[in-house]
Amino acid sequence: MKTSVSTKVQTGFFERTEYKLKASAEALTFEPASNCGAAFSIPASGIRSVTFHEAGLKMEIQADGMTEAHFASADDWSDAMNLIKETLGLKIVCEMK
Prior knowledge:
By secondary structure, the protein is of the alpha+beta class. The chain is about 15% helix and about 50% strand. The N and C termini lie far apart (about 25 Å). The model has no long low-confidence stretch (mean pLDDT about 90).
């Protein structure tokens, strides 16, 4: 199992910033892939839902707010799903095409 997955987080209306998604039992952490943006974490206890959408290869995390992440490939999309499921043990909703 991978320990991190590349993703682009929706940071503005037409803006996406590249991050590395990492998961631990305590939180999902997004670390910037370059000097753009700041790292941020979403505590596992605050996550209400995680939804993966096959159409568009994206993920939505509902916590205090909504975080939307996009993946470059189906492999990264499924790696992120497995990473979150295995590490956090959360129930994941997956919408297939």
